[in-house]
Amino acid sequence: MAREKGGFWVGFAVPFFYSIGWLTGRPRYQGREHLPARGGALLVGNHISHLDPIHTGTYVHSAGRVPRFLAKSSLWQVPVLGQVLRGSGQIPVYRDSADAQQSLAAGTQALADGKIVIIYPEGTITRDPDGWPMRSRTGVARMALASDVPVIPMVHWGTREVLNGYEKKFRPLPRTDVVLRAGDPVDLSAYRGRPLDAHILREVTDLIMGRVRELLAEVRDEDAPEEFYRRRPESEAGR
């Protein structure tokens, strides 16, 4: 199967992503057969470390696809990185602003155009002390229900041992196994075609993230908590 073409800026970024990925862990890729060889797919992941996008990017690229991330808009202001993000078709997320819906619309259009779009619905690295997913924003449900594409859960485990963003600890040595695993697409047939309201969006979000949590429990060989970790109260707008 021919590799999806990504253009100049994807080719420019690839050596850096693979090099950083190799330096920050021993990748253990599982479940790549769940990623379609062509056509759109929404890849929904947990978020435990700032290294996750590096490893997700190489995971998707090694399967012959080009990753398109939904990522915070401030990264587009970083010299060089901003040009790479623009040139490679990544999707800025404008949180708590009038442009927030544009991010979801751009992600939905990318799916319609046959791209693999990656979203971390928690919106930031988890604050759960044990590394389980937090209660997530509902934008993932909006995109999933607006698009007739597979919604694929995936998890990272091991990246937080290398880079812990909250504890400001970076331990590249000794090299740690970094597991990435994708699972079966989430069946959303019972929700398609129904009027969207806050209840449906929350239910679908929790269903998708529940699959992510179950997959993480398999990777960790542990029992998952029954409830999602809750951050301090915040507005549900744009979630």
Automatic annotation (TrEMBL):
InterPro entries: Plipid/glycerol_acylTrfase (IPR002123)
Phospholipid/glycerol acyltransferase domain ranges (all copies): 41-159
Segments crossing the lipid bilayer: 6-25
Pfam families, alphabetized: Acyltransferase (PF01553)
GO molecular function annotations of the record: 1-acylglycerol-3-phosphate O-acyltransferase activity
GO biological-process terms attached to the record: phosphatidic acid biosynthetic process
Keyword tags: Acyltransferase, Membrane, Transferase, Transmembrane, Transmembrane helix
A GO term from the CC aspect: plasma membrane
Top-level division of the source organism's lineage: Bacteria
Name assigned to this protein: 1-acyl-sn-glycerol-3-phosphate acyltransferase
